[in-house]
Design goal:
This protein is an all-beta fold. It has strands spanning about 1-5, 10-20, 25-30, 35-40, 50-55.
């Protein structure tokens, strides 16, 4: 089962999203609420789960 989390849009495009602990790539999608990040529940820590994001600024030329 996947557990979604939402982040507000910040004018950046996410290139890569992965779990910090083992570098597993995770799914990121954009929707009306912002960004939705999904990781399998077995990979998430009960207290905190650190997600590493590689981002790019959105410009008129992007």
């Amino acid at each position: 089962m996947m557990k979604p989390s939402h982040l507000p849009k910040r004018g950046k495009k996410i290139l890569i999203a992965k779990l910090y602990i083992d570098k597993t790539t995770i799914t990121v999608t954009e929707n009306d609420f912002g960004l939705s990040i999904k990781a399998t529940k077995d990979k998430m820590n009960e207290f905190d789960t650190v997600i590493e994001l590689e981002v790019k600024e959105i410009t008129m030329n992007s």
